[in-house]
Amino acid sequence: MGQMSSRVSGGERQRIGLARIMLKQPDVIILDEPTSALDVLHEKELLHTLEKEFKDKMILTISHRLSTLTYCDRIIQVKDGSGNVKG
């Protein structure tokens, strides 16, 4: 992001990164805490956009926020080093 990155908020940085993903249209997308710096309104907008734009793509989302995982087909809860599939 260069010199401008010091003037960009965490939420803005996340949105820029997601815009780059939308331009590249990869087959697999890995998101690590994609909404951690967003408020509830922007989180809902982002999740709706992800669901709409990447409906035919594989998205691996890592999150502590349950609300971020609402669009997921399957949730794997990792606890003490092992995974447990939830739905």
Strand order of the largest sheet: 1-2
Q: Assign the CATH topology.
A: Rossmann fold
CATH homologous superfamily name?
P-loop containing nucleotide triphosphate hydrolases
Report the CATH C-level class. Answer: Alpha Beta
| Largest β sheet strand count, sense and barrel closure | 2 strands, parallel
CATH architecture: 3-Layer(aba) Sandwich
Shape: globular
The number of strands is 4
Quaternary status: single chain
Low-confidence runs: none
* Structural class label: alpha+beta
Radius of gyration: 14 Å
Distance between the termini: 38 Å
What is the helical fraction, as a range of percent?
Answer: 25-40%
Order of helices and strands: HEHEEE
Count the helices. How many?
A: 2
Mean pLDDT: 85
Number of domains: 1
Which percent range describes the beta-strand content?
A: 15-25%
